[in-house]
Amino acid sequence: MARNKKDDSGIAATRDDVERAIAALTRADEQRLDRFARYKVRGLGRRALGRDNKDLLHDALLSTLSGTESETAGRRWYKNRVDFVGHLLGAMRSIASHWKEAFDEKEAHLESEVSVETEDGEILSPIERTQSTAPSQERIFFAKEVLGQVYKLFQNDDLAALVIEGIRENWTGPETMDRLEIPKDEYEAAIKRIRYQVR
Amino acid sequence: MSTQKQHDDELEALMSLLAESVADMSREQVENEFGDEPGLNVKSFLQSVLKEFDQAKLREARAKYQSATKDLSERSPKLPENALEQRALLSAFLNQRADVRSMFTAQFREFEELTDSDVESLLKQLIDLGMI
Fold first, then answer.
1. pLDDT value at position B59?
2. Which residue range is the domain that position A82 belongs to?
3. Inter-chain touch B16–A43, beta carbons under 8 Å
């Protein structure tokens, strides 16, 4: 029998639904949300502008609560489509992506506004000029340093190194498995080893 | 693309992959892999965010109420301060509104018999009704 499309899956959760869902979180839910938030913020690097996993979780819930009161503001949780943890993961994905875009747009604007031409005709961006003059380059090279440390960890783990190579090529998981002919269970085991090392 | 941006994107791709792998793990896998590790008390933290949201709403409602009552008191005409002026205002109003005057005489018979406090009370009621 065809399922009635006009079920209640489009009904947004109320503030009380959210409160009950928070109270019902298990330790595994908490670990999943916390780890996910940490990885997302670490991935943003300097684009996070000092924000951390708590800021990401905070904004995800605040957006959800705003969505319980407004059709236009915040993010609505349709509790019959996705569970609360799945909803918060989606909210965090979206917010992290927004932080990244906002940073990139601002940086692109800054670069186009403040880039200078040297006597040789070379265009120097403010970032490059900062790199050459900053007393501490720790923040500037944050991503490079972290990546260097990660790659070093897996120099003797061929499979994990291949998975990382796939990431560098901007391939998705299935693409990496397909192109490098890695069986799914071996791919997942390699991801687990990377996850274990990169806490 | 600058080298800096390439590194940023590469780091993001790596960490996103790990984040998504956590999202896809079964409950048992999460418990086995992270169970004993200390981490943020997410439940307690989210409850504090909920409290913060409720308090912000309360502040917003209070500010709206205060703004509305302030607006109302600013819009309401002020009563003359002395009794003679109040009586003159009520008289002038009743002279202009024959319909109210007829109701008024049925209730009070003689205007002159009204006490000062009756006059003040009537004026306040007329203001509340939006008639003055």
1. 93
2. 10-136
3. yes
